[in-house]
Amino acid sequence: MNGQQADEAVRTALSAEEEGIDFALIELLFFAYRDFTSDPDVILADYGFGRAHHRVLHFVNRRPGLTVAELLEVLRITKQSLARVLKQLIDAGHVVQVQGPRDRRQRELYPTAKGRALALALALPQSRRIRAALEEAGPADRAAIERFLKAMVDPDLRPQIDKRPRAGGGGREGK
């Protein structure tokens, strides 16, 4: 450790020169995420919900009929974590769970009108923030931004991105 003891305070900042790490982009992603989630966080707090509830509401609204197993795969969380969040959303009347038509053990998830309204209320400030950022960056840069963000996703998980409904499309693809 450059001649320093392990318990000694390090007084210099990490820099890109040390390890070839792009700290500038890492920090921009941290700050962008902080601000991107801040508006919905305020709304969610009024319901006693957190970001996990937001993610579940988002995907259930974007893919009505999504099964619990599919949602677990998308969110990459434990069954136990999802069960708690899903129970709260169901008890609050934002999501309903329906037995699968082909496999009675499967549970399909659908938003209620209340759940749809909350999902839209959470997405609206995020959409405004994205629109403003695209205007500042230049609308022609949208394709490059989408390619960059998709490239940030684990290659093995990119097919999940391709399953999402397109702008103006309703319901789940392939259902």
Give an overview in words.
Helix content is 59%, strand content 7%. With 175 residues, the chain is mainly alpha-helical. The chain has a 3-stranded antiparallel beta sheet. Strand 2 and strand 3 form a beta hairpin. The chain has helices at 16-19, 23-47, 51-62, 68-75, 79-91, 113-137, 142-152, 158-162, and strands at residues 66-67, 95-99, 107-111. Mean pLDDT is 88; it is low at 168-175. It has a single domain, classed as Arc Repressor Mutant, subunit A, CATH 1.10.10. The relative contact order is 0.10. The protein contains 8 helices and 3 strands.
Layout of strands and helices, then pairs:
Blueprint: H1 16-19, H2 23-47, H3 51-62, E1 66-67, H4 68-75, H5 79-91, E2 95-99, E3 107-111, H6 113-137, H7 142-152, H8 158-162
Antiparallel strand pairs: 1-3, 2-3
Helix pairs in contact: 2-6, 3-5, 3-6
